[in-house]
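Minutes, project check-in

Agenda point 3 was the complex the collaborators sent over. CS summarized: two entities, 563 residues total, and the question is how they sit relative to each other. Sequences were read into the notes so everyone works from the same version.
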Amino acid sequence: MFSVFGITDPAIWMGYALSIGFAITCIIYGLINWNRGGREDGS
Amino acid sequence: MAVDPVFTIVLVLVYVAATLVLGYLGYKRTIHAEDYLLAGRDSHPVIIALSYGAAFISTSAIVGFGGVAANLGMGLIWLTVFNIGVGILLAFVIFGKKTREKGAETGAVTFPDLMGKIFHAPKLQLISGTIILLGMPLYTAAVLIGGARFIETTLNISYTTALIGFAVIVAIYVIYGGLIAVMYTDAFQGAIMLTGMTLLLVLTYIAVGGVSAGHSALNAMSGLVPEALAGQGMTGWASMPELGSPIWFTLVTTLVLGVGIGVLAQPQLVVRFMTAKENRALNRAVLVGGPFILMMTGVAFTVGALTNVYFYEHMGKIAVDAAGGNVDSVIPLYINMAMPDLFVIIFMLTLLSAAMSTLSSLFHTMGTALVCDLWGRGHKCAMSLKANQVGCIVMMIISLVLALAMPAGIIARATAMFMGLCASAFLPAFSVGVYSKNPSKNGAVASMITGASIWLFYTVFVHTAEAKVLGISQLLTGSVTILGAPWTVIDPLIIALPISAIVMIIFQLSNRVAGVRCQG
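CS then shared the predicted structure for the full assembly.
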């Protein structure tokens, strides 16, 4: 049976994949927008 | 516990001293009321992120929900998906920046004040403040009780002493240092929590034989699910419950959606957006906040489920049976049995940090709601440093009395209840308020009252988990709930929030139509 790190139920490993994916999205978002939204760019 | 009690007490004293020093730094930086209420609107991004996360995650998220994962399995990971996707990404990116901008534009200093000012309706400040003062003490009492029970067993002191001592230590730095002290101590406590939970994850995978081996072992235990749970739809600890079964409804509606969405409109968290000087600080905070929450709830739920593997290997029992049937005892028992002595102390400080950081935010939000939004509303005293300090003292005493008087059953439900109430009452109006240029104030009033009323009615008369403990439905109608399944297991938020949103949308659209007619 197909498993991801020993987890066979897709509804569970997808939950893990999404959690980690969202956390990585947060990191990328923070890095991309690191200097956006400051006084100097008028926002 | 084999940990040296003298060493434990010394470490706790060092921790409390460090917390009070940070509280003192907050006190020294608190000069004006705006410093006390909004940390001078100039907080560092890392402090915003850790403070938001630490206030968000209480002891119940780690011990209580970790125990729920031990009982119901890894399906709870979907709450982590919502915690990060909704509680951080959506909250900071969609709501956070607009909230900060509106806060700075209107000069609002509290969440109710913000609601009143963006809708140009002072009565909204009054309604929001009232909902906070009615709902938040219950949640605060639950956090207080959770912390005190934990201190009682760890330091071997009486429950009442633990309760009062815990409340007073937190109150000292909240009263004197305001939101600056709250955020400084939150950040310190957040760093301890991050260390503790990272170690917990690593040591747990070592204890169960590795990542894949541990998960496979948990998968193989599905035949051990107790009959009572299997009959309600549970299929195993590494799989989701049967779609539409009572356990599925509880897991998805109350735990995942109820708590996951409920976090969006919590006043003590919303106010943190207003402490940022620029949107840039919120962008940077997202970078820290997402991984922080993953390491809090993601680890708690994973470890909670995996305790079944550990207890089965060492005691021949599933986790809840090993803990004598008490879900809340699973994580403490596991820590004491499976973890090295030094980690027991680190984890104790982690839990103490989680409880203190949440409690300090709640004291501060309630105290300022009492003074700024109710008692002193529209008067000079609303911005008085002393009056706000008195407000925090009053609300600390009320929470303490409530913690001593409330029955244990309702306290266990308080986290989900508070989040459900906040989302049902505030979320639709808050969303329209921060985004619309011409938000409907009648819509906001109607939406808030409708959301809160329906949530209350459903909680008291339909949702079994609360209706049974409250006993009001039984008293008035002769039955625990007035509706049957599946309504009795669907969280009140799932019913109240859409209705509250529809009310807001109808008023907002009619407002727009009226605006177009006027222009025409």
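Noted in discussion: The two ends of chain B are 76 Å apart (CA to CA).
Follow-up: revisit at the next meeting once the mutant set is ready.
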